[in-house]
Design goal:
Distance between the termini: 91 Å
Shape: elongated
Strand order of the largest sheet: 1-2
Length: about 675
C-alpha cells in the first residue's frame, strides 16, 4: 500500500497573525569573512580622512568648547547651551574623550567617526539579516538573507553621501544617532524572536538605547514610531496587536520624548546680562514660519531623492533660501510630487505593507528636519540622509537580485567600487579648509555664508604666512579674503559676521579707516559682537588713539567680562597711556581668567619695569618664558634687566598692538526674514 507524501512548505504568517517561525542565528565564523570584507572596504574608502582639519561647526563644537575635560568627570555632561553641543551631553562626552587622546589634533576625532560608522553598518547588517528571515519574507528571501544584508550594508557604508557624517567631525552627531536608531530596532527584533533566551533583556536594552539617544541628536524622536511600524509590518501584523502585546515596551520607548524635551529646552539661546547668547538656530522665533519652511522643504525632499539615486555633486553648505509662495514654479512642481509620494506611501502601508514601510522609513525619519519645524540656518543638509538612504538601497538590492539572481553580486560590486572611489575622492575635499570653502563657493556662488567662511580661511592662512615671514603671500591672501567678504556683503548687505571679518582683513592690510567702518556696521547689526568692539579698539591702539581704544575695550568687556584677551588689550592701552596702576590691574584680571597667558606676563613685567619694580618684573619675564620658551621679547627683557651694569629701567620689548584674530562663522545667527541675516 503506497503512502502519499505530504507536501511541505514554509509557512508565511498571514496579516494579523503572529508567527513563531524560528530565526536561525548564523554562527560567527560563517559571518566573519563577509564582515571582514565589509569592514576592510569601508576602512579603505575612508583611509584618507584622518588628515582633515576642524571645519565649519567644529569651531563651536570643539575649538570654542571649554567643557572638553574628563576631570571633574561631570564637566562634559553640561555643555554650553550657546554651542552646537548644547543639550547633547553624550555627544559632548565623545569630543571630551577625543580631546583627552589627541588634544586639538584631529586624527583621533576622525578615527572615532569612522568607528561609529562601521559599528552602525554592522548593526544594520544584523537588522537586515534578521528582517529577511522574518516569516513574511523568509520564503522569498530567507536563503539570500546574508548576501542581501551584506550587499545593502556595503553600499550603505561606502556611499559618498555618508562622508558628511564621517569625515566632517561634528556631524558625528548624525552617525551616533543612526547607530542608536539601528541598535534600538535590532534589540527590538531580538526581543521578539522565539529562540531568544532573555527577551526582556533585549527589550530593556532597546528602551535604554532609545531614551539616551537624543543626547547625541534629537532626530531619534521618530524611533519609537518606526519600531511600531516595524512591529506591525514584520512581526505582529497589525498596529493593535503590536501595541496590545508589547505595550510596556512602547511605554518605555515613549520616554524618549521626555529626553528630547529636556534636550531641546535651551537650544534656542537665552538672555544674559551680556546680551542674547545664541544656541542652535531652530524654531519659529527667527522669522521663518512653519508654512514657509514646509514650502522650502518640498524641493529639498525631491533633491534628497535625486541625491540618493546619484550622489553628485556633494555640497557642504547649500545656504539659505526660504520660499513663501506655494505657486513658485520650483515649489509647486516638487510640492505636487511630494504630495503624490506621501499618498502612495499611505496607500502602500494599507495594501502592501512591505513597500509602504520603505516609504515610511524615508518620510518619518526626515520629518523632524524636513517638515514644519524650521532649521533656520540649514534647511537642507546631506547628512540627514544617513538613515533615509536605506529607502533607496534596499529596493535597489532587491531589484538587482530579481534580475540577476545569484549573480546580483556583480552589479553590487561594481556599484560598491564606484561608491568607494567617490567617497575616497570626496574625502580630499575635507583635507584643507581653504580648498573646502573654495569648492563650496564654486558650487553655491550665491551663498553669502560660504563666501564669508572662504574669506575667513584665507585670512587665517594669511596670518600663518605672516608668521613665517612671507609678507607678500600674506598680503595676497588678505586681499583675496577682502574680495570674498565684499561678495558676501553684496549678496547680503547686512551680514554682520562678513562685515566684522572684512574689518579684520582691512586691519591686516593697514587700511584702518575701512576697518573701523566695517566694525561699526557689524555692531549695528549685532550689538553683542564683543570681538568687533575689541578689534575696533585694536585699530585705534595701532593708530595711537589710546584713549578712544580704551572706550571700545571697555564696551567689549561689558558684553564679555570674562574674556582674558579683552582685559589684556585694555591693560595694554592703559600702559601706552602711562596709566600703570590700571594697566597692572587689567593684566592681573587677565591672569585670573587665564593663568597660562605668556604675553600678559611679559607685558606685566614691562609695567613693573616702568614702575621701577625690577625684582617683580624679573619674576614676570621668567614666568612668561616658562610658559613659552620661544617668546623672544620676554627673553630680551630679562637679559636687559640681568645684564651687568644694566640701567635701572631698561627699555622693554613688546608688541605695540594686541592681536585680534578673526573667527570662522560656522552657524551664524539669523536676525529673521527670508534672507539669512546674521
Amino acid at each position: 500500500m503506497s503512502r502519499k507524501k505530504k507536501s511541505r512548505s514554509i509557512a508565511v504568517a498571514p496579516r494579523g497573525a503572529p508567527a513563531a517561525t524560528r530565526i536561525t542565528s548564523a554562527p560567527l565564523p560563517a559571518l566573519a569573512p563577509v564582515l571582514f570584507v565589509i569592514i576592510s572596504a569601508t576602512i579603505l574608502a575612508y583611509s584618507n580622512c584622518f588628515i582633515g582639519p576642524f571645519l565649519f561647526d567644529d569651531d563651536q563644537a570643539i575649538i570654542q568648547n571649554t567643557t572638553l575635560h574628563l576631570w571633574p568627570p561631570w564637566i562634559p555632561f553640561f555643555p554650553p547651551s550657546e554651542l552646537t553641543v548644547g543639550g547633547r551631553p553624550l555627544l559632548n562626552l565623545t569630543f571630551a574623550i577625543n580631546y583627552a587622546i589627541s588634544g586639538m589634533q584631529t586624527w583621533s576625532y576622525h578615527a572615532f567617526n569612522l568607528l561609529v560608522h562601521i559599528l552602525a553598518g554592522l548593526t544594520l547588517f544584523g537588522v537586515l539579516r534578521r528582517t529577511f528571515l522574518q516569516p513574511v519574507l523568509r520564503e522569498r528571501f530567507g536563503s539570500d538573507a546574508i548576501p542581501l544584508a551584506a550587499a545593502i550594508t556595503l553600499l550603505w557604508l561606502l556611499n559618498p553621501l555618508q562622508t558628511e557624517c564621517v569625515t566632517y567631525i561634528s556631524q558625528r552627531a548624525e552617525a551616533l544617532m543612526g547607530l542608536c536608531y539601528l541598535f534600538t530596532i535590532y534589540c527590538f527584533i531580538r526581543s521578539t524572536e522565539p529562540e531568544t533566551p532573555n527577551p526582556g533583556f533585549w527589550a530593556f536594552l532597546a528602551v535604554v538605547t532609545c531614551v539616551l539617544s537624543p543626547f547625541f541628536k534629537e532626530i531619534t524622536i521618530t524611533a519609537p514610531i518606526m519600531v511600531l511600524f516595524y512591529d506591525r509590518t514584520f512581526v505582529a501584523g497589525t498596529f493593535l496587536r503590536a501595541i496590545s502585546r508589547r505595550w510596556p515596551l512602547y511605554l518605555g520607548l515613549s520616554l524618549t520624548w521626555l529626553t528630547i524635551a529636556y534636550s531641546v529646552s535651551d537650544i534656542g539661546g537665552h538672555d544674559t546680562p551680556r546680551g542674547h547668547v545664541q544656541g542652535r538656530v531652530v524654531g519659529y522665533h527667527y522669522g521663518v514660519t512653519a508654512w514657509q519652511y514646509l514650502l522650502t522643504e518640498c524641493p529639498a525632499l525631491m533633491h534628497y531623492i535625486r541625491m540618493m539615486i546619484w550622489p553628485h555633486p556633494l555640497v557642504i553648505d547649500y545656504g539659505l533660501h526660504i520660499f513663501d509662495n506655494p505657486f513658485d514654479p520650483h515649489v509647486f512642481r516638487w510640492g505636487i510630487m511630494v504630495v503624490l509620494l506621501l499618498i502612495a506611501t499611505a496607500v502602500a502601508l494599507v495594501r502592501w505593507p512591505l513597500i509602504g514601510f520603505i516609504g515610511a522609513w524615508f518620510f518619518i525619519i526626515l520629518a523632524p528636519t524636513s517638515s514644519i519645524f524650521p532649521i533656520v540656518v540649514s534647511p537642507i543638509g546631506e547628512h540627514r540622509l544617513y538613515l533615509p538612504l536605506l529607502s533607496f538601497l534596499v529596493p535597489l538590492a532587491l531589484v538587482l537580485r530579481h534580475f540577476f539572481g545569484a549573480r546580483f553580486w556583480y552589479p553590487v560590486i561594481a556599484l560598491a567600487l564606484i561608491y568607494g572611489s567617490l567617497t575616497f575622492i570626496r574625502n580630499w575635499d575635507y583635507s584643507s579648509a581653504v580648498s573646502f570653502w573654495k569648492l563650496a563657493v564654486s558650487q553655491q556662488p550665491k551663498n553669502a555664508r560660504a563666501h564669508n567662511n572662504y574669506g575667513v580661511t584665507l585670512l587665517v592662512a594669511a596670518e600663518s604666512d605672516d608668521a613665517r615671514g612671507d609678507k607678500e603671500e600674506a598680503t595676497r591672501k588678505a586681499i583675496a579674503a577682502s574680495q570674498q567678504f565684499r561678495e558676501a556683503t553684496r549678496i547680503q548687505p547686512l551680514y554682520a559676521d562678513a562685515h566684522y571679518n572684512w574689518g579684520n582683513a582691512a586691519t591686516k592690510l593697514g587700511n584702518y579707516p575701512e576697518a573701523i567702518t566695517h566694525f561699526q556696521t557689524a555692531l549695528e547689526q549685532k550689538p553683542v559682537l564683543s570681538s568687533a568692539q575689541n578689534n575696533w579698539g585694536n585699530v585705534l591702539d595701532a593708530m595711537g588713539k589710546d584713549a578712544e581704544a580704551v572706550q571700545h575695550y571697555q564696551m567689549a568687556l561689558q558684553i564679555d567680562p570674562n574674556n582674558a584677551q579683552f582685559h589684556y588689550n585694555l591693560g595694554h592701552a592703559y600702559l601706552m597711556m602711562q596709566n600703570l596702576s590700571d594697566a597692572i590691574e587689567q593684566f592681573n584680571e587677565a591672569l585670573q581668567l587665564n593663568p597660562n597667558f605668556p604675553d600678559v606676563y611679559n607685558t606685566l613685567g614691562i609695567a613693573y619695569v616702568k614702575l621701577g619694580a625690577t625684582d617683580q618684573a624679573i619674576q614676570e619675564f621668567q614666568q612668561a618664558l616658562r610658559l613659552n620658551p620661544n617668546l623672544n621679547a620676554a627673553r630680551e627683557n630679562l637679559e636687559r634687566l640681568q645684564a651687568p651694569g644694566a640701567q635701572e629701567t631698561p627699555q622693554p620689548q613688546g608688541s605695540s598692538m594686541p592681536p585680534g584674530t578673526p573667527q570662522p562663522q560656522g552657524t551664524p545667527a539669523p536676525q529673521g526674514g527670508p534672507a539669512p541675516q546674521q
